[in-house]
Structure formats: C-alpha cells, structure tokens
Hints:
Helices cover about 30% and strands about 30% of the residues. By secondary structure, the chain is α/β, with parallel strands linked by helices. Helix 2 (about 35-45) runs parallel beside helix 3 (about 65-70). It has helices at about 5-20, 35-45, 65-70, 85-100, 140-150, 185-195; strands spanning about 55, 80-85, 105-110, 125-130, 150-170, 175, 200-215, 220-235. Strands 1, 2, 3, 4, 5, 6, 7 and 8 form an eight-stranded mixed beta sheet that branches. The structure holds S-adenosylmethionine. S-adenosylmethionine (SAM) binds near residues 16, 83, 85, 89 and 130.
Amino acid sequence: MDTKTKQIRENERLSHTEIYTKEKLYDTDTWLKKPIKTIQEIIPLLFGCKGLRILDLGCGVGRNSIFLAEKLGTENDCRIDCVDILDIAIYKLNQYALEYGVSDNINGIVSSIEDFIIQENSYDLIIAVSALEHIDGEENFIKKLEEIKNGLKKNGTVCLVINSNVKEINSETSEELEPQFEVNLRSEKIQEYLNKIFLEFEIIKNHIVVQEYNIPRGPINSKLTTDVITFVAKSITEPSR
Ligand SMILES: C[S@@+](CC[C@H](N)C(=O)[O-])C[C@H]1O[C@@H](n2cnc3c(N)ncnc32)[C@H](O)[C@@H]1O
C-alpha cells in the first residue's frame, strides 16, 4: 500500500473512531441519525423472501444493517454479514445488535472490503454505502464490483452509494485539501463501470446528487463537496456469469 493510501486510512480511522465513540446510533444529529432513504425503500422488494442473506460492505456501526435486521430479521429468517475494517465499528455493531434484539441476524466481520472474498451466488442483497471509495485503488474497486455482481443470487439486489468528484477545502482559509478517499473518480467514469458490469441487471435507481458536508480533519474543518451516486439494480439472469 502506498504512503498516500496509508495516510488516508489513518485519517479515516481517527475520524470514524471519534464519531463511533461519541455518537449513539439513531440518537444523534450526525449521519448516524437514520438509515439512508434508499435502504428504507428497498425493504418491500425483500418482503416474503425466506432465508434472506444480506452483505453490508463497510457497514460501520450498522446504521443500515440494524434497521434491515429489525424489519426483516425474524419474519424472513435473515442473516446479515457485516464487514468493516475497524474493530470499533464491529464492536459497536454487536452492542447495537444486542440492544435492538437482532444479534441472531447480525454477523460482524472485521476485514477490509478488499480481503473479504464474496462467494458466488450467495446473497439476496449486497449493500455498500459510502464504502467502495475506500478500496485501495481503481483496479481493486472494479474487481470488487465484479465480485458483487457474481455474489448475487438470481433476483438479488445491489445497492451502492458511492462518492465521486470529491473536493475538500479548509472551511476557514478556503485552501484546497487532499480528499481523504482512496478512490476518487469522476462520476461519469464510475457510471461507465456500473453500466458495463451490471449490464444485464434491471436498473431500479441510478442518480447523482451533489452534496456538501462539514467534516473534521484533525484540527481542520473541511468543507467537502461530492457527487453522490446511488445505484440500485436487480439481477434477472441465472448466476452462471
Ligand atoms: C462513511 S462510513 C459508512 C458506514 C456505513 N456504510 C453507513 O452507511 O453508516 C465508511 C465505513 O467504511 C469503513 N471502511 C473504510 N475503508 C474500508 C475498507 N477498505 N474495508 C472495509 N471497511 C472500510 C470505515 O471503517 C467506516 O466504518
């Protein structure tokens, strides 16, 4: 891993550790306040499926997975494999799973997304929310998209939220900062990859929204602008891809 990637990883570790330690899931004014809207919208697609297998890549403390487990857990006999590189994320995820009574449905795994091999034809839903842009380079990013495609069962759904065109500036001095994302591609490029890899899928949602956040970067407050791509698609072919 190159020095720049190592530095980004360390900064990410510090900022996520801070938020996961200080803020409480669903009881905060930060992004941990609620699951993303797209995940809430996906639930009806999964009602009625028994033995549901879900994968959440870069799950954090379970903002989306705890919600999915609560909605689908018992009725749908659902198991969610939750992968995150940080011990503290998985430790907190397990605590929240206990608190929300969904421990039987949540399987926390400490691993990088790169090292976690997605078995073929295994999942009904694979989600990665603000996570794939932290893979260690464009080549592995494309490889993981292929693995996600092959990891889905027939009628399986993929739900990706990916930041692109990320720019960061010091909010006090307006000085440009190095965006803390391992993969920072143009949105057109990411969409090109998505359209090519998920060519045979039925596209349910594919849009880009410009967003702005204030993010603490050590002693500096960063104003971050990003084109957020939301991509939801359903596999409609047999998984002998
Ligand atoms: C912005 S948070 C999003 C968390 C969660 N998906 C959500 O929507 O609440 C990104 C998460 O990805 C994790 N992460 C970053 N790089 C990773 C990698 N290479 N492999 C696995 N997890 C990673 C971070 O530790 C962090 O918990």
